[in-house]
């Protein structure tokens, strides 16, 4: 225990006390951000009073109390070993399951005979779908072909993503093997063009972060993950991630949960309640595995309560609700309102016209907002110019709607949607003027500057 870093000590004791980060924060008076920094190792030497507050809150026995104090003292004594200009890849997930077709597409695009010079692949998908894990696994497969690999977190869903010049500065320091004061993207692109590298750019906020590093020629390959579509990137291979197939989802759970705590039927039910989403599956698996007296069947009963499912999908600092919220927070207020009101639609798919009725906006405005939602993978595109809101994303929208809008507002939005349906329907065998208007043959009126407005909005994060 003496050699255990402070962050690991705090996390272990917090989990043994069955506390989330938020719970420990509320009880101790220390911010959740500060506690997260301690557990991740970003803050290795917190103030003595901070350590004492954690110790008092956890009500630790003397041995654990002494271990935590020693770990904090050692953190203040030891210089940080990790060189600040190093950009190593995260640890590969040992029990990684599935995604064979996606991995084959990535590796073929980056190294195959048809790969372009300086090939680029973008992995996209909704929150929690395992984009980073897929990128790290792909990098591991490519290590023999491209041994020089760099990993950069682009902070796509943070409030202030790093600027393209800041990202270039990080990579320049890694390439030079020392801290660098230079931030010229042109210099970085030239260095990357001279010898083969694999640059993994995780959680991109916008296209400009990628363009700052992508060389125009040379053997360097670039692998990007993002919740956004990054449609402005040219000559990019695109690998969208969907939910895992049922068999793979059950295999993820089986790799985490001990066999004596889960039967095959329970694993199948638990996978369905997790919507076959990788992050939710890992949370559920870890939650059962970390409590020897628990069973998968017991967690199934908890998750079966629809209103409490998102809250139950929490294991320590892993929360499916927080993962979705980080994407929703990127939206403007009007688009957030549309997102939560989409939960009022019971049909499997819907049109922009119905979405417009829910928020009392012109159709062209609803189309813009749906574009924003689709760009962040918060709604799915469906055939026939339609959209869908499914699974855990729908659960989040339902909870957000109940939390932010009174019953009267929800009833009014539902009534407006019903009225719209009535005016756009026609009797069998008749085309109906309103029905033709709902189709795509009659363009909806819109301001001439709409496209410029939309593209400008999409790139705000990158300019930050």
From TrEMBL:
Residues 10-65 form the HTH cro/C1-type domain. Transmembrane segments: none annotated. Pfam families: HTH_31. Residues 413-464 are annotated as: Disordered. Residues 451-464 have a biased composition (Basic residues). GO terms for molecular function: DNA binding. CDD domains: HTH_XRE (cd00093). Residues 421-433 have a biased composition (Polar residues). It comes from the Bacteria. PANTHER family: HTH-TYPE TRANSCRIPTIONAL REGULATOR RV0890C-RELATED, REGULATOR-RELATED. This is Predicted ATPase. It comes from Geodermatophilus africanus.
């Amino acid at each position: 225990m003496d050699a255990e870093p402070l962050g690991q000590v705090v996390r272990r004791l917090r989990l043994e006390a069955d506390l989330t980060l938020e719970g420990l924060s509320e009880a101790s008076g220390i911010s959740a951000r500060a506690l997260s920094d301690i557990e991740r190792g970003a803050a290795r030497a917190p103030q003595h009073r901070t350590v004492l507050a954690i110790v008092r809150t956890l009500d630790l026995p003397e041995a654990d109390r002494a271990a935590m104090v020693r770990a904090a003292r050692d953190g203040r004594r030891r210089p940080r070993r990790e060189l600040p200009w190093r950009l190593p890849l995260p640890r590969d997930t040992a029990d990684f399951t599935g995604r064979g077709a996606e991995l084959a597409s990535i590796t073929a695009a980056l190294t195959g005979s048809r790969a372009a010079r300086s090939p680029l692949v973008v992995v996209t998908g909704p929150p929690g779908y395992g984009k980073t894990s897929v990128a790290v696994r792909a990098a591991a497969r490519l290590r023999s072909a491209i041994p020089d690999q760099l990993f950069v977190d682009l902070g796509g869903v943070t409030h202030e993503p790093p600027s393209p010049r800041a990202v270039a500065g990080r990579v320049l320091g890694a390439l030079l093997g020392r801290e660098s004061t230079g931030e010229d993207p042109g210099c970085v692109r030239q260095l990357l063009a001279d010898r083969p590298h694999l640059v993994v750019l995780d959680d991109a906020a916008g296209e400009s972060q990628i363009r700052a590093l992508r060389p125009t020629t040379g053997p360097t390959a670039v692998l990007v993950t993002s919740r956004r579509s990054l449609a402005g990137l040219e000559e990019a291979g695109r690998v969208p991630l969907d939910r895992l197939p049922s068999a793979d989802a059950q295999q993820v759970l089986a790799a985490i949960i001990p066999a004596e705590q889960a039967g095959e039927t329970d694993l199948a039910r638990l996978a369905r309640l997790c919507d076959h989403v990788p992050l939710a599956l890992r949370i559920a698996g870890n939650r059962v595995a970390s409590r020897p007296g628990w069973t998968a069947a017991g967690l199934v009963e908890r998750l079966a309560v629809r209103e409490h499912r998102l809250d139950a999908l929490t294991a320590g600092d892993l929360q499916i609700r927080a993962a979705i919220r980080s994407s929703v927070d990127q939206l403007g207020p009007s688009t957030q309102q549309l997102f939560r009101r989409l939960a009022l639609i019971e049909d499997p798919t819907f049109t922009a016209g119905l979405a417009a009725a829910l928020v009392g906006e012109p159709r062209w405005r609803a189309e813009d907002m749906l574009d924003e939602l689709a760009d962040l993978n918060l709604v799915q595109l469906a055939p026939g110019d339609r959209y869908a809101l499914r699974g855990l994303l729908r659960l989040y929208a339902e909870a957000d709607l109940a939390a932010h809008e009174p019953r009267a507002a929800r009833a009014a939005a539902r009534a407006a949607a019903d009225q719209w349906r009535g005016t756009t329907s026609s009797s069998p065998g008749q085309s109906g003027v309103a029905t033709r208007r709902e189709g795509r043959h009659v363009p909806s009126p819109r301001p001439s500057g709409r496209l410029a407005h939309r593209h400008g909005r999409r790139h705000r994060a990158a300019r930050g």
